[in-house]
């Protein structure tokens, strides 16, 4: 098997000790935008973004809207003549055509023109759905990400990947469309259920193996504080995750190369999500399992030191994430992975780890991939 060179990535060194500034910026030329992190004043963020006008539409869901929409709507009323709320269904199942159509229909019914601004108030599902609606309504309108899950704050709200699922695979329909700003208010995480919080930690952990050994070691030292939702630890983790994601996206917005490293664990994970039925596993849980499988494959195919596999497994366990996948028929698993967007010329390309902190995109024999899957899966349907 030919071995690919790891992607090169330049990121600022990780400094856990220094007090983090509360706003980052993602450098995309005239489409650059701020990522605000911390205890936020949404009015101030809005003023800084210089957003205002005739109509703002908040897109949320039945869980998040009762918690946070009135606070957001009050802030928006100071700068928009009209503010409307649209409540999409909750959960992964909402990332589909009917939810998208309902948003687009609502915008048209409201008489929204190209100056409308959408606000995605929710987790990654609401962010992906709202972003896609913003990308295609009147061929593109502005939107702001107001992420309310840990996963959305550390990953999905940044970088402009938007879209919906098909039964055949995750995120198979979508667009790259960058938001105007990201407002990651750590206070809203107080109401997040424990299982969802853990799912977010999976995407935090992801950044270590592919880009940042020092951050990985910091996570090992600070997982207990993170599990206790300690504010300082959380601030450091969210900020570092966004810093890495912003650097990767700025280097390769449309995933022609290095951006693929953010897909570590996702070839396996997305297959689990689609194969078991959307919502059976949370996205972060599927990514946790996928990272174990991809690391196992890296050991078997690239000779990665198996110590990393043990370290990763132990960190995932401490984050209360699953480390054994439910059974999925191996042929179905492979079939779903062949539909992954990174596949080329009929071959599945995996994000693998030749050495801690570096990643490459690599074809591997199906037999090895099946061994990696079997090593971290239940052997039969329960
Ligand atoms: N675009 C990207 O770059 C990107 C990156 C990672 C993941 N994703 C996508 O994100 C989705 C997963 O996102 P998620 O994990 O945020 O799931 P989610 O959006 O379904 O939110 C998880 C659950 O938490 C609830 N919730 C949200 N905020 C809450 C709060 N503050 N308090 C109480 N409950 C709250 C939601 O209603 C939901 O039930 C997947 O579809 C995944 O494919 C996209
Ligand atoms: O931003 C990216 O790039 C990512 O790959 C982040 C992933 O965590 C995320 O789940 C993303 O939605 C996956 O994208 P896809 O292109 O594999 O559908
Ligand atoms: Zn993901």
TrEMBL record:
Q: Name one Pfam family in it.
A: DHQS_C
Start and end residues of each 3-dehydroquinate synthase N-terminal domain: 87-198
- Report the locations given in the UniProt record: Cytoplasm
Tell me the keywords, alphabetical order.
Answer: Amino-acid biosynthesis, Aromatic amino acid biosynthesis, Cobalt, Cytoplasm, Lyase, Metal-binding, NAD, Nucleotide-binding, Zinc
- Cofactor(s) annotated in UniProt: Co(2+); Zn(2+); NAD(+)
**What's the name of the protein?**
3-dehydroquinate synthase
Pathway the protein takes part in: Metabolic intermediate biosynthesis; chorismate biosynthesis; chorismate from D-erythrose 4-phosphate and phosphoenolpyruvate: step 2/7
A molecular function annotated in GO for this UniProt entry is:
nucleotide binding
EC number(s): the record gives 4.2.3.4
Q: According to the record, how does the cofactor bind?
A: Binds 1 divalent metal cation per subunit. Can use either Co(2+) or Zn(2+).
Which SUPFAM superfamilies does the entry link to? Dehydroquinate synthase-like
Q: Which reaction does it catalyse?
A: 7-phospho-2-dehydro-3-deoxy-D-arabino-heptonate = 3-dehydroquinate + phosphate
Instruction: Show the GO cellular component annotation of the record.
Output: cytoplasm
Q: Write out the GO biological process terms.
A: amino acid biosynthetic process; aromatic amino acid family biosynthetic process; chorismate biosynthetic process
Class of enzymatic activity (EC top level): lyase
Q: Which organism is it from?
A: Inhella proteolytica
According to the entry, every stretch annotated as the 3-dehydroquinate synthase C-terminal domain falls at 200-343
Reading the lineage from the top rank, the first entry is Bacteria
> Can you tell me which residues bind Zn(2+)?
203, 266, 283
Binding site residues for NAD(+): 90-95, 124-128, 148-149, 161, 170
């Amino acid at each position: 098997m030919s071995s690919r060179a790891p992607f090169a990535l330049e990121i600022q060194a990780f400094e856990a000790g220094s007090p983090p500034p509360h706003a980052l910026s993602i450098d995309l030329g005239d489409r650059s935008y701020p990522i605000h992190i911390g205890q936020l004043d949404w009015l101030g963020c809005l003023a800084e973004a210089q957003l205002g006008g005739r109509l703002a539409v908040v897109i949320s869901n039945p869980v998040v809207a009762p918690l946070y929409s009135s606070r957001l709507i009050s802030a928006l009323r100071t700068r928009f003549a009209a503010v409307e709320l649209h409540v999409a269904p909750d959960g992964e199942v909402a990332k589909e055509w009917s939810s998208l159509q309902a948003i687009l229909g609502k915008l048209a019914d409201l008489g929204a023109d190209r100056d409308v601004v959408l606000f995605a108030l929710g987790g990654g599902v609401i962010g992906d759905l709202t972003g896609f609606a913003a990308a295609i309504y009147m061929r593109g309108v502005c939107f702001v990400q107001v992420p309310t899950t840990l996963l959305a704050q550390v990953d999905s709200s940044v970088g402009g990947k938007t879209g919906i699922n098909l039964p055949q695979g995750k995120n198979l329909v979508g667009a790259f469309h960058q938001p105007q700003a990201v407002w990651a208010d750590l206070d809203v995480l107080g109401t997040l259920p424990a299982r969802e919080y853990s799912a977010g930690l999976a995407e935090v952990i992801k950044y270590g193996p592919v880009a940042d050994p020092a951050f990985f070691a910091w996570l090992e030292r600070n997982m207990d504080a993170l599990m206790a939702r300690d504010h300082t630890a959380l601030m450091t983790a969210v900020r570092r995750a966004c810093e890495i994601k912003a650097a990767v996206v700025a280097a390769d917005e449309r995933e022609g190369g290095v951006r693929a490293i953010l897909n570590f664990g996702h070839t396996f994970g997305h297959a689990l999500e689609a194969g078991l039925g959307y919502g059976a596993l949370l996205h972060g849980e599927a990514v946790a399992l996928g990272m174990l499988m991809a690391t196992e494959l890296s050991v078997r195919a690239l000779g990665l030191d198996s110590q990393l596999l043990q370290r990763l497994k132990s960190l995932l366990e401490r984050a209360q994430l699953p480390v054994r996948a439910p059974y999925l028929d191996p042929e179905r698993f492979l079939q779903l992975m062949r539909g992954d967007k990174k596949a080329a010329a009929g071959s599945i390309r995996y994000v693998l780890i030749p050495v801690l902190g570096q990643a490459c995109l690599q074809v591997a024999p199906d037999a090895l991939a099946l061994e990696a899957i079997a090593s971290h899966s239940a052997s039969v349907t329960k």
